């Protein structure tokens, strides 16, 4: 993995959060740019001018000048004082992504650190180190100060991390890897913590899961259409051509492929049903809007992963050190909020399709998909569980970025709350995965409850087969929670969507 501050992708992020341990190295051109910026810091650090974070205090204390002999102590104190996070540690994959993203941002050559500092970050990443980053403590402006301070402590032999499943102190980690603790020089502590990389790592993790969920939701919808003997007319390409939202057209095309050559569809082509409920008929519009949201978010997140987000910034070609606000994570926070809304809607419409499956007045099937209704309750409480999770998502989908609490004695008077937005996004997606899993189980059961088996389209059949490899048909009541968890794993790892795509071709 080449680190240059310009070419990190969501696919790279996927590899990291999935647990891969690629070797990461700083490119030659990036190293040159980093050296140029460092030379500018060293040339200006001892001058009479006040340079924020280089020879001054931080935030409200920026008017306090720091003597040349204390510049290194200033950077160390900054990390120690700002490592004030709380709560459970973030997932190792997210923490490792934040680690490599911080190195990538510094590699652009506008932060004023030494190349050796970036090399150390990349050495920790390549070794498989996962910094222990408390999930709470960042408001997403002036950077993700608290969690990034916990990350940066590892460079000076402090803090905590996990390596190969073991929890180690920063000192023990340094000894194990044979890396002497670093002494940070002017600007370096501030450059390490003044960034959006934790917010961005959370957003990337949630976005990757949401995009995978969207593919599976299309398969679940197709299976439900087959089980309910729904119409394919609402997916006709002509309908979507006259309202040409990209996501809407993609979803309609996916469902057409999933239902292609369906004997179920042929069996009721001339029935008297005119229109299906919205949960079926409007799936392209709802699923498609979610996909368009995720596409927009992907562009923002990839741009942020390759941005310089600390302060002040150095421009060696102009001999300029400029104060600004690139540390403000509003762009990332807003798309995290937007993605949470979209994922919540995927769950909401899925729950309505579950209702259509379990309600005998709507499905024409046995009540709650039980083989002997009354003696057995079937999917009665599975639908209740879906409803409970969807309601939870409605609360979690409230945007984090509309809130702001001023910090640093009013100096930092508007913040983004982007880390909370990213954390909420991942929880919403996890909840949505469970709802779609319940729909997959219900649709598979419903396909089996008709008077005779009729072969569904190849894509829907592949989804059905994937479910049945891990969950047996519900012949009589049993503990349902293990079935839901097993199906959720199929959603989370993309098994169902991949199986359907193998049967019918790529699902866009």
CATH class of the largest domain: Mainly Alpha
- Secondary structure class reads mainly alpha
Distance between the termini: 27 Å
- Here the CATH topology of the largest domain equals Fumarase C, Chain A, domain 2
CATH superfamily of the largest domain: Fumarase/aspartase (Central domain)
- Average of the residue pLDDT scores: 95
Indicate the percent of residues in helices.
55-70%
Radius of gyration: 26 Å
What does this 3D model show about the protein?
The protein is mainly alpha-helical and 508 residues long. The protein folds into two domains: 194 residues, Fumarase/aspartase (N-terminal domain) (Fumarase C, Chain B, domain 1); 302 residues, Fumarase/aspartase (Central domain) (Fumarase C, Chain A, domain 2, Up-down Bundle). The protein contains 21 helices and nine strands. A three-stranded antiparallel beta sheet has the order 4-6-7. The protein has a two-stranded parallel ribbon with strand order 1-2. It has a two-stranded antiparallel ribbon with strand order 3-5. A hairpin with a 2-residue loop joins strand 6 and strand 7. Helix 3 packs across helix 6. The radius of gyration is 26 Å and the shape is elongated.
